[in-house]
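agent> Task received from the user: take the single chain below, predict its 3D structure, and emit structure tokens. No templates, no multimer pairing.
agent> Plan: (1) validate residues, (2) run structure prediction, (3) serialize to tokens, (4) report one or two observations.
agent> Step 1 OK, no nonstandard residues flagged.
tool_call: predict_structure(input=
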Amino acid sequence: MNARSIFIVSSIVTTAAVIAAGCYWPDAWYAMLIVAPIILIGVRDMIQKKHTIKRNFPVIGNFRYLLEAIRQEMMQYFVETDTEGKPFNRLQRSIVYRRAKKANDSTPFGTQMNVYSSGYEWMDHSIYASPSKYYQKQPRVLIGGPDCTTPYFASLLNVSAMSYGALSHAAVSALNLGAKKNKFAHNTGEGGLSDYHLLGGDVIWQIGTGYFGARDKEGNFNDEEFQKRATLPNVKMIEIKISQGAKPGHGGLLPAAKNTPEIAKIRGIEPFKDVHSPPNHSAFSNPKEFLLFIKKLRGLSGGKPV
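)
tool_result: status=success, residues=306
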């Protein structure tokens, strides 16, 4: 006997029992306040054709959807440990809550994290502590292989790519002056190399698909325009942005309203016109051409890392 048959038989038997009891005990009719809704739910489940589970298992099939509705809460409170949640576990969320409330965010007696798992790192106290050479000299990384005649010693922390236009001139100036003061690099973003990037800080000039600052009127890569800017003393490295990461397949668009004469001069475009950054490069179309393009930029820039 399947679940549908069991429901039908039990409904008939229960209803008959309530009716029979009601003939001798009038208060028994109040049981229909419970029995009737259950029977109606079961009949509805058998008639509907949207959910197979409800149709095959009247009434009790609804518990599946009820449990599914509270699954997240059950996982959070009864299944997950304090360190398993994604994207942020309960311990991390608790720290944020405490700091937001300006409460103590420190927990005594160690940690619940598995400190011996792969990828977990910590610093041990030295038995023979002494001033380290790293405190006296800023650690840097050499960028540039044998083909680079002017390699660059890069700081471990630098300013990532943000274009002038997306940031104001004041913001770009502040970032570049900060790079100058603390001897780290400032990435221009793909919006071109502006005067605000040339205040003394080391510069990484990013070349995107629009070749802004290094293009001709048709938007193709221009050797002379690139060489004129890439050989500036402040420009230490060239970065090629292979494609539009946030807009793959479509490319970026600079609206005409944002294309001011200043922006247009920096990017080498006509002002007050929409400018499209293609989703891919026109200077190369395969890995071999890409490597040749890298070699070309290295030569035009005077041997700087690309």
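agent> Step 4: summary for the user.
The longest strand covers residues 202-207.
agent> Done.
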